[in-house]
Design brief:
The complex is a heterodimer. Chain A has helices at 2-22, 29-39, 60-94. By secondary structure, chain A is mainly alpha-helical. In chain A, helix 1 (2-22) runs antiparallel to helix 3 (60-94). By secondary structure, chain B is mostly helical. Chain B contains 7 helices and 2 strands, in the order H-H-H-E-E-H-H-H-H. Chain B has a two-stranded antiparallel sheet with strand order 1-2. Chains A and B meet through helix 1, helix 2 and helix 3 of A and helix 2, helix 3, strand 1 and helix 5 of B.
Chain lengths: 98, 229
Amino acid sequence: VRRRWLAALAVAIALGAASAYVASVHPDTLERTADDLQAAGVRPAFTPPLPGARVPGLDAKPGGALAGALGVAATALVLVVVLRLLVRRRARAEKPHA
Amino acid sequence: VLRRLRAVIPAGAAREQDVHIPDGFLQPQVWVPLGAVSAAAVGYGARRTGRELDERQVPLLGVLGAFVFAAQMLNFPVAAGTSAHLLGAVLLTVLAGPWAASVVLAAVLVVQCLLFMDGGLTALGANFFNMGLLAIVPAALAVPAATRRWGRRGLLAAAFAVSFVSSELAAAAVALELALSGTMPLRPALLAMTGFHLIVGLGEGLATVAVLRLLAAARPHLLPAGAQS
Protein backbone atom coordinates (compact mmCIF):
# COMPACT_ATOMS: atom_id res chain seq x y z
CA VAL A 1 0.00 0.00 0.00
CA ARG A 2 2.83 2.35 0.92
CA ARG A 3 4.45 1.62 -2.45
CA ARG A 4 1.23 2.60 -4.21
CA TRP A 5 1.09 5.96 -2.41
CA LEU A 6 4.74 6.61 -3.17
CA ALA A 7 4.09 5.81 -6.84
CA ALA A 8 1.15 8.25 -6.87
CA LEU A 9 3.35 10.89 -5.23
CA ALA A 10 6.04 10.28 -7.86
CA VAL A 11 3.45 10.90 -10.60
CA ALA A 12 2.41 14.17 -8.90
CA ILE A 13 6.06 15.24 -8.60
CA ALA A 14 6.61 14.42 -12.28
CA LEU A 15 3.55 16.55 -13.15
CA GLY A 16 4.90 19.42 -11.07
CA ALA A 17 8.25 19.13 -12.87
CA ALA A 18 6.59 18.83 -16.29
CA SER A 19 4.68 22.05 -15.69
CA ALA A 20 7.85 24.01 -16.45
CA TYR A 21 7.84 22.52 -19.96
CA VAL A 22 4.15 22.25 -20.81
CA ALA A 23 2.37 25.05 -18.93
CA SER A 24 1.32 28.14 -20.83
CA VAL A 25 4.02 30.81 -20.75
CA HIS A 26 1.74 33.84 -20.75
CA PRO A 27 2.51 36.09 -17.79
CA ASP A 28 -0.01 36.42 -15.01
CA THR A 29 -2.25 39.47 -14.99
CA LEU A 30 -1.85 40.07 -11.31
CA GLU A 31 1.89 39.31 -11.33
CA ARG A 32 2.29 41.74 -14.16
CA THR A 33 0.40 44.41 -12.28
CA ALA A 34 2.47 43.52 -9.19
CA ASP A 35 5.58 44.28 -11.22
CA ASP A 36 4.09 47.65 -12.10
CA LEU A 37 3.33 48.27 -8.43
CA GLN A 38 6.87 47.26 -7.41
CA ALA A 39 8.14 49.92 -9.75
CA ALA A 40 6.02 52.31 -7.72
CA GLY A 41 7.59 51.14 -4.46
CA VAL A 42 5.45 48.20 -3.34
CA ARG A 43 7.56 45.19 -2.36
CA PRO A 44 6.62 41.61 -1.49
CA ALA A 45 6.53 40.84 2.24
CA PHE A 46 9.69 38.69 1.92
CA THR A 47 11.95 37.03 -0.63
CA PRO A 48 10.96 33.38 -1.09
CA PRO A 49 13.56 30.61 -1.55
CA LEU A 50 12.26 29.81 -5.06
CA PRO A 51 11.08 33.14 -6.47
CA GLY A 52 8.89 32.89 -9.55
CA ALA A 53 8.65 29.09 -9.07
CA ARG A 54 12.22 28.69 -10.27
CA VAL A 55 15.44 27.48 -8.61
CA PRO A 56 17.85 30.44 -8.67
CA GLY A 57 21.00 29.87 -10.70
CA LEU A 58 19.44 27.36 -13.10
CA ASP A 59 18.01 27.97 -16.56
CA ALA A 60 14.30 28.73 -16.76
CA LYS A 61 13.00 25.27 -17.67
CA PRO A 62 15.24 23.00 -15.56
CA GLY A 63 14.98 25.52 -12.71
CA GLY A 64 11.20 25.59 -13.05
CA ALA A 65 10.99 21.79 -13.23
CA LEU A 66 13.07 21.36 -10.08
CA ALA A 67 11.06 24.05 -8.28
CA GLY A 68 7.81 22.38 -9.34
CA ALA A 69 8.99 19.00 -8.09
CA LEU A 70 10.17 20.52 -4.80
CA GLY A 71 6.87 22.34 -4.32
CA VAL A 72 4.81 19.21 -4.88
CA ALA A 73 7.01 17.16 -2.53
CA ALA A 74 6.92 19.91 0.12
CA THR A 75 3.12 20.06 -0.02
CA ALA A 76 2.82 16.30 0.48
CA LEU A 77 5.33 16.39 3.33
CA VAL A 78 3.61 19.31 5.10
CA LEU A 79 0.24 17.61 4.79
CA VAL A 80 1.43 14.24 6.07
CA VAL A 81 3.15 15.87 9.07
CA VAL A 82 0.22 18.18 9.93
CA LEU A 83 -2.46 15.51 9.49
CA ARG A 84 -0.48 12.94 11.51
CA LEU A 85 -0.13 15.53 14.31
CA LEU A 86 -3.88 16.18 14.23
CA VAL A 87 -4.72 12.48 14.35
CA ARG A 88 -2.22 11.78 17.15
CA ARG A 89 -3.49 14.71 19.17
CA ARG A 90 -6.95 13.17 19.06
CA ALA A 91 -5.54 9.76 20.01
CA ARG A 92 -3.75 11.31 23.02
CA ALA A 93 -6.93 13.13 24.06
CA GLU A 94 -8.92 9.90 23.87
CA LYS A 95 -6.40 7.81 25.87
CA PRO A 96 -7.39 8.87 29.43
CA HIS A 97 -11.01 7.93 28.68
CA ALA A 98 -10.07 4.47 27.38
CA VAL B 1 -17.15 39.08 -26.90
CA LEU B 2 -13.38 38.75 -26.43
CA ARG B 3 -12.81 41.93 -28.42
CA ARG B 4 -15.25 43.79 -26.18
CA LEU B 5 -13.63 42.31 -23.08
CA ARG B 6 -10.19 43.38 -24.22
CA ALA B 7 -11.46 46.88 -24.82
CA VAL B 8 -12.49 47.32 -21.20
CA ILE B 9 -9.59 45.44 -19.57
CA PRO B 10 -6.73 47.61 -18.32
CA ALA B 11 -3.41 47.34 -20.19
CA GLY B 12 -1.66 44.12 -19.22
CA ALA B 13 -4.77 42.54 -17.75
CA ALA B 14 -5.60 40.38 -20.77
CA ARG B 15 -2.96 37.85 -19.94
CA GLU B 16 -3.24 35.17 -17.33
CA GLN B 17 -6.37 34.97 -15.28
CA ASP B 18 -4.81 33.85 -12.03
CA VAL B 19 -6.64 34.24 -8.75
CA HIS B 20 -3.56 34.24 -6.48
CA ILE B 21 -3.44 37.79 -5.18
CA PRO B 22 0.11 39.01 -4.43
CA ASP B 23 1.24 41.36 -1.64
CA GLY B 24 0.51 45.01 -2.15
CA PHE B 25 -2.80 44.54 -3.96
CA LEU B 26 -5.12 44.50 -0.96
CA GLN B 27 -5.52 47.12 1.73
CA PRO B 28 -5.62 46.04 5.41
CA GLN B 29 -9.36 46.78 5.65
CA VAL B 30 -9.82 44.01 3.05
CA TRP B 31 -7.12 41.46 3.88
CA VAL B 32 -7.44 41.54 7.67
CA PRO B 33 -11.13 40.47 7.85
CA LEU B 34 -10.66 37.94 5.05
CA GLY B 35 -7.60 36.59 6.88
CA ALA B 36 -9.60 36.28 10.10
CA VAL B 37 -12.47 34.46 8.36
CA SER B 38 -10.07 32.10 6.60
CA ALA B 39 -8.02 31.43 9.75
CA ALA B 40 -11.21 30.57 11.63
CA ALA B 41 -12.37 28.31 8.80
CA VAL B 42 -9.04 26.48 8.53
CA GLY B 43 -8.79 26.20 12.34
CA TYR B 44 -12.25 24.68 12.56
CA GLY B 45 -11.54 22.47 9.55
CA ALA B 46 -8.33 21.22 11.20
CA ARG B 47 -10.20 20.47 14.42
CA ARG B 48 -12.91 18.50 12.63
CA THR B 49 -10.32 16.74 10.47
CA GLY B 50 -8.38 15.70 13.57
CA ARG B 51 -11.59 14.39 15.11
CA GLU B 52 -12.81 12.46 12.07
CA LEU B 53 -9.71 11.43 10.12
CA ASP B 54 -8.47 7.86 10.09
CA GLU B 55 -4.65 7.62 10.09
CA ARG B 56 -4.88 5.41 6.98
CA GLN B 57 -6.36 8.38 5.07
CA VAL B 58 -3.30 10.57 5.72
CA PRO B 59 -1.30 9.38 2.65
CA LEU B 60 -4.37 9.86 0.43
CA LEU B 61 -4.72 13.48 1.54
CA GLY B 62 -0.97 14.08 1.16
CA VAL B 63 -1.10 12.78 -2.41
CA LEU B 64 -4.30 14.72 -3.17
CA GLY B 65 -2.62 17.91 -1.98
CA ALA B 66 0.43 17.11 -4.12
CA PHE B 67 -1.78 16.65 -7.20
CA VAL B 68 -3.68 19.88 -6.54
CA PHE B 69 -0.37 21.73 -6.17
CA ALA B 70 0.86 20.24 -9.46
CA ALA B 71 -2.46 21.00 -11.20
CA GLN B 72 -2.24 24.64 -10.07
CA MET B 73 1.17 24.89 -11.75
CA LEU B 74 -0.15 23.62 -15.08
CA ASN B 75 -1.40 26.80 -16.68
CA PHE B 76 -3.45 26.19 -19.78
CA PRO B 77 -4.21 28.67 -22.55
CA VAL B 78 -7.69 30.15 -22.38
CA ALA B 79 -8.17 32.76 -25.11
CA ALA B 80 -6.77 36.02 -26.40
CA GLY B 81 -3.30 35.46 -24.97
CA THR B 82 -4.58 34.48 -21.56
CA SER B 83 -3.95 31.38 -19.51
CA ALA B 84 -5.29 29.97 -16.28
CA HIS B 85 -4.91 27.04 -13.91
CA LEU B 86 -7.28 24.72 -12.13
CA LEU B 87 -8.26 25.30 -8.50
CA GLY B 88 -9.09 21.74 -7.42
CA ALA B 89 -11.14 22.69 -4.35
CA VAL B 90 -14.34 21.01 -5.54
CA LEU B 91 -12.49 17.80 -6.34
CA LEU B 92 -10.88 17.87 -2.89
CA THR B 93 -14.25 18.43 -1.21
CA VAL B 94 -15.84 15.53 -3.08
CA LEU B 95 -13.00 13.13 -2.29
CA ALA B 96 -11.99 14.23 1.22
CA GLY B 97 -14.97 16.13 2.62
CA PRO B 98 -15.09 19.86 3.41
CA TRP B 99 -13.00 19.81 6.63
CA ALA B 100 -10.04 17.90 5.20
CA ALA B 101 -10.36 19.82 1.92
CA SER B 102 -9.92 23.10 3.80
CA VAL B 103 -6.74 21.81 5.48
CA VAL B 104 -5.31 20.43 2.22
CA LEU B 105 -6.04 23.59 0.25
CA ALA B 106 -4.63 25.78 3.01
CA ALA B 107 -1.40 23.72 2.94
CA VAL B 108 -1.19 24.08 -0.86
CA LEU B 109 -1.62 27.86 -0.65
CA VAL B 110 0.86 28.23 2.23
CA VAL B 111 3.56 26.25 0.39
CA GLN B 112 2.93 28.22 -2.82
CA CYS B 113 3.21 31.46 -0.87
CA LEU B 114 6.25 30.63 1.28
CA LEU B 115 8.23 28.74 -1.37
CA PHE B 116 7.36 30.61 -4.57
CA MET B 117 5.69 33.81 -3.34
CA ASP B 118 2.80 32.73 -5.59
CA GLY B 119 0.15 34.70 -3.73
CA GLY B 120 1.18 37.20 -1.10
CA LEU B 121 1.66 36.63 2.61
CA THR B 122 -0.81 39.37 3.51
CA ALA B 123 -3.24 38.06 0.87
CA LEU B 124 -3.07 34.45 2.09
CA GLY B 125 -6.43 34.69 3.84
CA ALA B 126 -8.06 36.34 0.83
CA ASN B 127 -6.62 33.69 -1.46
CA PHE B 128 -7.96 30.91 0.76
CA PHE B 129 -11.34 32.65 0.90
CA ASN B 130 -11.51 33.01 -2.91
CA MET B 131 -10.07 29.67 -4.01
CA GLY B 132 -11.07 27.61 -0.99
CA LEU B 133 -14.15 28.70 0.90
CA LEU B 134 -16.06 29.90 -2.17
CA ALA B 135 -15.70 26.42 -3.68
CA ILE B 136 -15.71 24.17 -0.61
CA VAL B 137 -18.95 25.56 0.89
CA PRO B 138 -21.11 25.22 -2.26
CA ALA B 139 -19.55 21.82 -3.02
CA ALA B 140 -20.24 20.59 0.52
CA LEU B 141 -23.87 21.68 0.18
CA ALA B 142 -24.71 20.69 -3.39
CA VAL B 143 -22.68 17.56 -4.19
CA PRO B 144 -23.87 15.28 -1.35
CA ALA B 145 -27.51 16.33 -1.97
CA ALA B 146 -27.24 15.59 -5.70
CA THR B 147 -25.46 12.28 -5.00
CA ARG B 148 -28.18 11.18 -2.58
CA ARG B 149 -30.86 11.97 -5.15
CA TRP B 150 -29.31 10.86 -8.43
CA GLY B 151 -26.31 8.69 -7.50
CA ARG B 152 -23.11 8.91 -9.55
CA ARG B 153 -24.75 11.01 -12.29
CA GLY B 154 -25.86 13.49 -9.67
CA LEU B 155 -22.34 13.61 -8.25
CA LEU B 156 -20.78 14.31 -11.64
CA ALA B 157 -23.39 16.90 -12.64
CA ALA B 158 -23.15 18.73 -9.32
CA ALA B 159 -19.32 18.60 -9.33
CA PHE B 160 -19.30 20.13 -12.81
CA ALA B 161 -21.83 22.84 -11.93
CA VAL B 162 -20.15 23.78 -8.64
CA SER B 163 -16.70 23.83 -10.28
CA PHE B 164 -17.99 26.27 -12.90
CA VAL B 165 -19.84 28.46 -10.42
CA SER B 166 -17.00 28.51 -7.88
CA SER B 167 -14.53 29.57 -10.55
CA GLU B 168 -16.80 32.52 -11.39
CA LEU B 169 -17.29 33.30 -7.70
CA ALA B 170 -13.53 33.32 -7.11
CA ALA B 171 -12.99 35.63 -10.10
CA ALA B 172 -15.75 38.00 -8.96
CA ALA B 173 -14.41 38.01 -5.39
CA VAL B 174 -10.90 38.91 -6.59
CA ALA B 175 -12.31 41.76 -8.66
CA LEU B 176 -14.38 43.02 -5.74
CA GLU B 177 -11.45 42.83 -3.29
CA LEU B 178 -9.17 44.67 -5.72
CA ALA B 179 -11.82 47.35 -6.22
CA LEU B 180 -12.42 47.72 -2.47
CA SER B 181 -8.66 48.15 -2.05
CA GLY B 182 -8.53 50.80 -4.75
CA THR B 183 -6.16 48.69 -6.88
CA MET B 184 -8.43 48.43 -9.91
CA PRO B 185 -11.79 49.93 -10.81
CA LEU B 186 -14.61 47.42 -10.23
CA ARG B 187 -16.20 47.28 -13.67
CA PRO B 188 -13.14 46.42 -15.80
CA ALA B 189 -11.75 44.08 -13.14
CA LEU B 190 -15.10 42.28 -12.82
CA LEU B 191 -15.55 42.04 -16.59
CA ALA B 192 -12.00 40.80 -17.12
CA MET B 193 -11.99 38.22 -14.37
CA THR B 194 -15.51 36.81 -14.74
CA GLY B 195 -15.46 37.04 -18.55
CA PHE B 196 -12.38 34.89 -18.97
CA HIS B 197 -13.38 32.66 -16.09
CA LEU B 198 -16.41 31.53 -18.10
CA ILE B 199 -13.89 29.47 -20.06
CA VAL B 200 -11.75 28.68 -17.01
CA GLY B 201 -14.84 27.43 -15.18
CA LEU B 202 -15.69 25.11 -18.04
CA GLY B 203 -12.12 23.74 -17.91
CA GLU B 204 -12.34 23.35 -14.14
CA GLY B 205 -15.67 21.53 -14.45
CA LEU B 206 -14.50 19.23 -17.23
CA ALA B 207 -11.23 18.40 -15.41
CA THR B 208 -13.08 17.69 -12.15
CA VAL B 209 -15.54 15.38 -13.91
CA ALA B 210 -12.73 13.67 -15.85
CA VAL B 211 -10.82 12.87 -12.63
CA LEU B 212 -13.98 11.66 -10.88
CA ARG B 213 -14.87 9.42 -13.83
CA LEU B 214 -11.36 8.03 -13.87
CA LEU B 215 -11.59 7.27 -10.15
CA ALA B 216 -15.07 5.77 -10.64
CA ALA B 217 -13.56 3.32 -13.10
CA ALA B 218 -10.30 2.58 -11.28
CA ARG B 219 -10.88 3.28 -7.58
CA PRO B 220 -14.64 3.59 -6.96
CA HIS B 221 -14.16 3.21 -3.19
CA LEU B 222 -12.60 6.69 -3.16
CA LEU B 223 -15.93 8.24 -4.25
CA PRO B 224 -18.59 9.18 -1.70
CA ALA B 225 -21.12 6.53 -0.69
CA GLY B 226 -24.01 6.56 -3.15
CA ALA B 227 -21.71 7.14 -6.13
CA GLN B 228 -19.52 4.07 -5.84
CA SER B 229 -21.61 1.84 -8.11
